[in-house]
Write a structure and sequence with these properties.
Elements: H1 3-13, E1 17-20, H2 22-35, E2 41-45, H3 53-57, E3 62-65, H4 68-76, E4 84-86, H5 93-101, E5 108-111, H6 114-126, E6 131-136, H7 147-157, E7 163-171, H8 179-200, E8 206-210, H9 226-241, E9 245-250, H10 252-255, E10 259-271, E11 274-279, E12 300-302, H11 307-310, E13 316-320, E14 329-335, E15 344-347, H12 354-357, E16 370-373, E17 379-383
Parallel strand pairs: 2-3, 2-9, 3-4, 4-5, 5-6, 6-7, 7-8, 8-9, 11-13
Antiparallel strand pairs: 1-10, 10-11, 10-15, 12-15, 13-14, 16-17
Helix pairs in contact: 5-6, 7-8, 8-9
Bound molecules: pyridoxal-5'-phosphate.
């Protein structure tokens, strides 16, 4: 977005403010599609940003939905169930049952454990349905199932009339900026799938893979040429696409670039020789990967002042948020000549996880209830559980 457009947003709506640019979003998806093999499908992991789901829903093949809150958002937005991959390590039996009994099939349910398998199968049996599933293979964490368990499930349920086993889901982490690492991971996965097919005689039709494609937040240079990076990644995928449907589950890489976080300077001071600017936002509203204590300078500039023009200036500022903690630092020693109260800072590439990963809002799960225990040991409920899907749902207000 141009600074003029951003300034208009800041003036009209005030700060702090997230601005998401649909134009950039569409261009970004087109760019990804252009560099990925033709038949690769895109499944957007909506935890990265729920507010752009209406725009994205039209241009991606599926949505990965990880909680009842995220499902409610989709329902409220009128998104067809056949777009949804019902995912997540903690599935809700009532939600699964409601979806299965609705008669409108979802794109897939992922299976993260044997108890989830039982939950999904018994719901399918109860409602006389046959449900599509993806078995999640673990990468050695709490997510997914061991290879041997996946194999047992395939063997035991290949002919199960309640289950349509589509294939495998795999996600091992985000911000993977090494092609070597992605290559090793895909080779291992491919070998596992072939082994599974040989052992069981069952055909794996879908590989749903979360590559954790990286975003270059700090100009680290590793993926300076993103098109070349994606072309190399596409070369790794191509042989697999000739054997089965490949679906990429992507969050960060789809939405990071469309977002700008605007926050205004409300106070300035010089303490022990360092310049501090206090802004009306804070670290609870801005989440960059590996950004703790702002050890690295994120992509930020003062509206009306290009970052290039400011680079090398000796007028440097520590940008601090409004929270009462010394950790609330958004940028350290940022070159920003003439920064003053009222200046608006634009943090770029802020479209992924910022509005949802302030941890309380993550996954649109309910906020915890709060209980205060009094002197006599009596517990008192002082706040009920609050729904956050309401807060994470886009509505037309202007
Ligand atoms: C199962 C799964 N798929 C996809 C993603 C999206 O990852 P990224 O934002 O790195 O693309 C996540 C993120 O946590 C995930 O848990």
């Amino acid at each position: 977005m141009t600074d003029n457009e951003l300034t208009r947003c800041a003036t009209t709506f005030g700060t702090p403010l997230y601005v998401y640019d649909e134009r950039e979003l569409r261009a970004r998806v087109a760019f990804l599609r252009e560099h990925l093999p033709e038949h690769v499908e895109l499944c957007y992991a909506m935890k990265a940003n729920t507010f752009v789901v209406p725009e994205l829903e039209q241009i991606v093949d599926g949505l990965e939905v990880c909680s009842p809150g995220e499902e409610s958002i989709c329902a409220e937005l009128g998104i067809s169930q056949d777009k949804l991959v019902i995912s997540g390590v903690h599935k809700d039996a009532d939600l699964i049952d409601a979806l299965v009994s609705s008669g409108a099939p979802v794109r897939a349910y992922t299976v993260e454990s044997l108890s989830q398998l039982e939950m999904i199968t018994s719901s399918a049996v109860r409602h006389g349905a046959r449900v599509p599933v993806l078995l999640r293979l673990t990468s050695g964490s709490q997510f997914g199932m061991d290879a041997s368990v996946v194999e047992d499930v395939v063997r035991d349920h290949a002919a199960d009339p309640a289950l349509d086993i589509l294939g495998i889901q795999y996600f091992s982490g985000t911000q993977k900026d090494s092609i070597k690492r992605l290559s090793r991971e895909l080779a291992k996965l491919d070998a596992f799938v072939h082994g599974l097919e040989e052992e069981t005689g069952f055909s794996i039709r879908v590989l749903e893979f979360g590559p954790g494609l990286p975003v270059d937040y700090y100009d680290a240079g590793k993926i300076a040429d993103e098109a070349a990076f994606l072309d190399e990644f596409a070369d790794l995928l191509r042989p697999i696409t000739s054997q089965r449907r490949v679906v990429l589950e992507l969050g960060r890489s789809v939405v990071a670039s469309c977002g700008t976080y605007l926050t205004s300077v409300v106070d300035t001071k010089t303490n022990v020789g360092s310049n501090y600017a206090i802004v009306d936002g804070g670290m609870h509203q801005l989440v960059y990967y590996a950004h703790a204590m702002a050890l690295r300078l994120p992509p930020v500039h003062v509206l009306g002042q290009s970052a290039d023009a400011a680079a090398g200036e000796t007028d440097e500022w520590n940008i601090c948020g409004s929270l009462c903690t010394t950790s609330d630092i958004l940028a350290k020693r940022m070159p920003a000549p003439g920064l003053e109260v009222g200046s608006v800072l634009a943090f770029e590439k802020a479209g992924a996880y910022c509005s949802t990963e302030g941890m309380l809002m993550f996954l649109s799960r309910d906020l915890p209830k709060i209980v205060v225990v009094d002197e006599k040991g009596e517990p008192h409920l002082v706040r009920d559980g609050l729904r956050t899907d309401v807060m994470n749902t886009p509505r037309s207000l202007s």
